[in-house]
Amino acid sequence: MELNITTLAERPELAGALDGMPDTWPEFVLEDIVGWANFARIAVEFPQYVLVATDPEGAVVARAYSVPFVLDAPGRGELPVGGWDRMLLWAFADLRRGRTPDTVGAIEITVATGHQGKGISGRMLAAMRDNARQHGFREVVAPVRPSGKHLKSGLPMEEYARLTRADDGLPEDPWLRVHARAGGTVDSVATVSMTVSGSLAQWREWTGLPFDTDGPVEVPGALVPVHCALAHGYAVYVEPNVWVRHRL
């Protein structure tokens, strides 16, 4: 499929279409408080790190968000167990304080509904790597949300991330496999990469499930079970991701 991949800084007129692009994200994932408060700021404050892909007709078919941040700093150094949330907070804290970033972090690569399975995600990952390189960075890090993990929600992420195929030794997970083929290597597990908490009424609205029993609840699209505290009227989802490093 012929694609035109540019940054949002180069084509700011696509901001609306980028935001309105249809996707398949589970509704509850969008309720992460850190993401809810900061994600929209990326297109405004880091447009040179936002990639948009259009087809020959000009329709937006994929997007890729990344942010620059400081990893080599006191109290940091290692990729954080806080994963996606922590990296996003670091990026905007560094911007506010005028720090010079040394690393690019992948926030999201999403292909529009109806265009999956065409190899577009791999091309967006390659474009993100190239964009970081052009800005003078030597590494891209990604708190990867493995695309097949929801089918094995009871398996610890540490074990899942190490599953490989017998024929070629590549990761069993399709999205981790794309990263591996692009040159990425698994670093660690971000055990508390994203947290979504809400009342039982909210979880029922987000998922259509009853949430009427205590303990773990299997939710479609969730990478691990959601913990339901019936007597206290709330449920919490703590999502682990897999840190992948891409040396440029």
From TrEMBL:
Its EC number is 2.3.1.-. It is an enzyme of class 2 (transferase). GO terms for molecular function: acyltransferase activity. This is GNAT family N-acetyltransferase. InterPro entries: Acyl_CoA_acyltransferase. Keywords: Acyltransferase, Transferase.
